[in-house]
From TrEMBL, chain A:
Keywords: 4Fe-4S, Iron, Iron-sulfur, Metal-binding
InterPro entries xrefs: 4Fe4S_Fe-S-bd, 4Fe4S_Fe_S_CS, Fe-S_Ferredoxin
This protein's name: 4Fe-4S binding domain protein
Lineage of the species this protein comes from: Bacteria, Bacillati, Bacillota, Clostridia, Eubacteriales
A Pfam short name: Fer4_7
GO molecular function, one term: metal ion binding
Domain 4Fe-4S ferredoxin-type: 16-45, 48-79
Record has Transferase as a keyword: no
From TrEMBL, chain B:
Pfam families per record: DGC, GCV_H
Name assigned to this protein: Glycine cleavage system H protein
Organism: Acetobacterium wieringae
InterPro entries recorded: 2-oxoA_DH_lipoyl-BS, Biotin_lipoyl, DGC, GCV_H, GCV_H/Fam206, Single_hybrid_motif
Top-level taxonomic group: Bacteria
Segment forming the signal sequence: none
Family: Belongs to the GcvH family.
GO BP term, pick one: glycine decarboxylation via glycine cleavage system
Cellular component terms (Gene Ontology): cytoplasm; glycine cleavage complex
Record domain Lipoyl-binding: where: 170-252
Length: 104, 282
């Protein structure tokens, strides 16, 4: 999964993953059961038991776990900002490619 | 039995949202057409409601996003005709429900809004302006016992496996063959509201099987013009014909050339999907 991308942009350059508000979380673990991508991890011995273990496994723009959350404890980054950032990275990369070609 | 609608409410009697589900269900049950279903008894002894369920369409009232009532219907493989979520409705009214049971203006307003939503489920929509393509040709590849189909042209995809196909400034949105096979039998389609404006990558409702809920992540920006109402009675069309009869939402496009920057054409999605399927099974 290390080389995973979203629309050609390396996944680890895109900041998209669930944020948990532990003042609302009730440890029901519905999000863990729901997410098929192993984004979350449960550690029975830790203080909040729930952890966002693999943020880059999270499908960019998917917010489905937040919808399964009864107490509404999960939020995501701003989608419009994220879209803008992805477009900017793609543009910069295309420009860099062109420049490299021109220099050959 | 003259009842034509069965109402299955949330049973969260210890919380505000559950209490409101109960109040909505009791209001609805005033009508002679409505049969109430107790979720606890249904779970314990389904045969008790077999007759009512056979005679009527099922409306589910969820209290919160734990969606116990929906999940119960899913587990029992009951087809859901209409569905409403009390907490979601409260959110649209900017009302915070909290945990404690309350009888006040706010909770009365939520009950009224939920009732209005249940009664208006057959929303008016304009005649479709979308011109359907004559015949869609497909490419396919197999992986294990699965065969995945992707149209050969005229469809565009985001990497969230949702497609758009365009005619003029109108378009239709749906999910790819991969999504429907992943979910298996689709029991319910939760459409967006007609008139809703949305951005690219906003959600456009969801589809649900007994396995999971899948959020429709919009490949384009625009306005909801129509929803595929034939899916109310036959959600399995999304399984049978994900790219044609199983379309989900018809939209008026805002800026498709801008949206296209973050979309794949058919050959590119075909390649993307091949890689994705290969990776998941490893």
């Amino acid at each position: 999964m290390s080389e995973s991308t979203f629309m050609g942009v390396e996944r680890d350059r895109i900041d998209w993953s669930p944020r948990i508000d532990f003042s609302k979380c009730n440890d029901c673990m519905d999000c863990v059961k729901f997410c098929p991508h192993q984004v979350f991890e449960v550690d029975e011995n830790a203080k909040p038991k729930l952890k966002v273990k693999n943020p880059n496994n999270c499908v960019v723009f998917c917010r489905a776990c937040a919808k399964t959350c009864g107490p509404d404890a999960i939020t995501f980054p701003d989608k419009t900002e994220t879209t803008k950032m992805i477009k900017a990275i793609r543009k910069a990369e295309k420009a860099a490619e062109k420049e490299a070609e021109a220099n050959e | 039995m003259s009842e034509s609608i069965c109402v299955l409410p949330c049973n969260g009697l210890d919380k505000c949202a559950g209490d409101l589900s109960r109040r909505v269900a009791l209001e609805l049950a005033q009508s002679a057409e409505v049969a109430l279903i107790c979720p606890v008894l249904l779970n314990q002894n389904r045969s008790r409601y077999e007759k009512a369920l056979a005679a009527g369409d099922l409306t589910v009232i969820d209290g919160c996003n734990t969606r116990c009532a929906s999940k119960l219907a899913g587990d029992l493989e009951l087809a859901i005709k209409d569905k409403v979520n009390v907490s979601e409705v409260a959110k649209t009214l900017d009302i915070k429900l909290g945990v404690d049971i309350q009888e006040n203006d706010d909770t009365r307003a939520v009950v009224q809004a939920v009732l209005a939503k249940v009664n208006s489920s057959a929303a008016d929509q304009a005649e479709s302006e979308f011109i359907e393509p004559e015949a869609v040709e497909y490419n396919s590849f197999s992986h294990g016992k699965f065969i995945f189909k992707v149209p050969q042209s005229n469809y565009f995809f985001n990497e969230n496996d949702c497609w758009v196909t365009v005619s003029g400034n109108m378009a239709r949105v749906g999910v790819s063959d991969y999504v429907q096979q992943n979910l298996s039998d689709i029991l319910y389609v939760d459409p967006p509201e007609i008139g809703d404006e949305f951005e690219q990558f906003d959600d456009l409702g969801s589809i649900e099987s007994s396995k999971a809920v899948f959020e429709i992540i919009s490949p384009v920006s625009g306005t909801v013009v129509a929803v595929n109402s034939s899916l109310n009675d036959a959600p399995e069309q999304v399984n049978e014909s994900p790219y044609e009869k199983g379309w989900l939402v018809e939209v008026k496009l805002r800026d498709f050339s801008e949206d296209q920057d973050l979309l794949h054409d058919c050959p590119a999605y075909f390649e993307f999907l091949q890689r994705k399927v290969a990776e998941i099974d490893v």
